[in-house]
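Thread: Newbie trying to understand structure tokens

Hi all, I'm a second-year student working on a class project, and my supervisor (Dr. K.) asked me to get a predicted structure for one chain before our next meeting. I've only ever worked with sequences, so writing a 3D structure as a token string is new to me. If someone could post the tokens and maybe explain what I'm looking at, I'd be very grateful. Here's the chain:
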Amino acid sequence: MINIVLFGAPGAGKGTQAGKLAERYNFNHISTGDVIRQEIRDATALGLTVQDAISRGELAPDHVVIEIIDNYVHSHRAAAGNIFDGFPRTTPQAEAFDRILASHDLHVDTMLELVVPEEDLVQRILLRGQCSGRADDADETIIRNRIEVYNAQTAVVASYYRAQNKYVAIDGSGSIEQTFASLCREIDRLFAQ
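---
Reply by user tm_fold:
Sure, no problem. This is what the structure looks like when written as tokens:
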């Protein structure tokens, strides 16, 4: 089973690309952001725990996200692989993720980072906010805070995978189709190994 971390700042296109890749390769796709937002909508204990942080554009607490991923890995073993969209977001999450996967005799095969200029990210999210209904997609101050949090807390995770020779940068500034083709080339290399 191939395990891919799809990485990138808010607005880089992770959700769009992960969906397309899951369909093409018969991979499971988990978006921790989607799972957490559903927990908030359902007003579960987990949702209430993270609601305040999310509304400020901050990250959900590590222990909550790690619990979600552990449950997910345990219950999803049938596909050809997994695409983890938006996880891990911190180095402690990456370290915990390695332990979770190892407990299932699995490992991260690669991290694919979608690299997009910051101003393009802001404009993409504002455009998405016109139809997503998400308040955090419609407020430029919150968007810029999300990108700042990403740069301060999440971008360092790339170094964690770079040190393991599992990191690949993908130009995400082109069209959806161009980015998808670049991602597919990297995944096809994994299958060829």
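A couple of things are worth pointing out once you decode it. The domain at 2-187 is CATH 3.40.50.300 (Rossmann fold). The chain has a mean pLDDT of 90. Feel free to ask follow-ups in this thread.
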